[in-house]
Amino acid sequence: MALENSIQIIGLNGSPHLKGNTATLMSWVLKGCEEAGATIEWINLKDYNIKYCQGCHTCLRTGECAINDDDFIKILERLISSDGIVVGSPVYADGPTALLKTLMDRFTLLNLFVGIFEKPYTVGVSTSGFAPYRKLAKNIAMVMGHKIGIIGVKTSSIKKGYQSLKDLKKDRLNRKAHKLGRKLVASIRLNKKPYSFMYWWINFLRKHLIKRVIKNNPEQFSGILPIWIQKGWLKPEK
């Protein structure tokens, strides 16, 4: 169980705008986290250099990404060592921004095969003009840990067009965001992981499919074999 003065929450902003609607809504959630006693740290992906995944599968052979001349490892280490993540993105073409998608592409295989996000609890934040946002908020929260909740808002209307969240009267949304932030910290203190069909499905795949693939092809997965043995997912060869 995390101690009250040691709870670390990261705000992972996938928006290119540091003070836009997504960042504003994220800040409301993070304010609730602070009210509950957590320490807050921001990661604005716009400020970092993250190269595209090459699809080389080196991470499965060695346990490390082949690309080591950008900021990916620095960001990943900060994320997986945190207690909670508030991850946010506006809706771009029914998905996250290219900034966040590039980061997710880089850790997807490690997450699936090694379970690097077993620790953090997450909240998903999404904003849009007219497009649905709930699916995106849910997906980005689930891929980075144990989803506690989601929050989002549409900020365009036929009459007024695009509007800044700061200029809208969204007191109810602000209170909801603060409450969600406090809930995130409370969940971390309780150390009780919520049920997730996605996590059930991933564990099912590891146990009944991925495990067989690794056992039958040990040379291809030599980098993650020690991790599987350490986690108890695979028994060491005698």
Write the layout of secondary structure elements.
Blueprint: E1 8-13, H1 21-35, E2 39-44, H2 58-62, H3 72-81, E3 84-90, H4 98-114, E4 121-128, H5 134-142, E5 146-154, E6 156-157, E7 161-162, H6 171-190, H7 197-216, H8 225-231
Parallel strand pairs: 1-2, 1-3, 3-4, 4-5
Antiparallel strand pairs: 6-7
Helix pairs in contact: 1-6
Strand elements, count: 7
Structural class: alpha/beta
What is the CATH superfamily label of the largest domain? Flavodoxin domain
- Taking Cα atoms only, what radius of gyration do you get, to the nearest Å? 19 Å
Reported for the largest beta sheet, the result is: 5 strands, parallel
Give the tally of structural domains: 2
Helix tally? Answer: 8
CATH class of the largest domain: Alpha Beta
Which regions contain 5 or more consecutive residues with pLDDT less than 50?
A: none
CATH architecture term of the largest domain? 3-Layer(aba) Sandwich
Q: What is the H/E order?
A: EHEHHEHEHEEEHHH
Q: Kindly state the percentage of residues in helix.
A: 40-55%
The CATH topology of the largest domain corresponds to: Rossmann fold
Report strand order across the widest sheet: 2-1-3-4-5
Shape: globular
Binned strand content: 15-25%
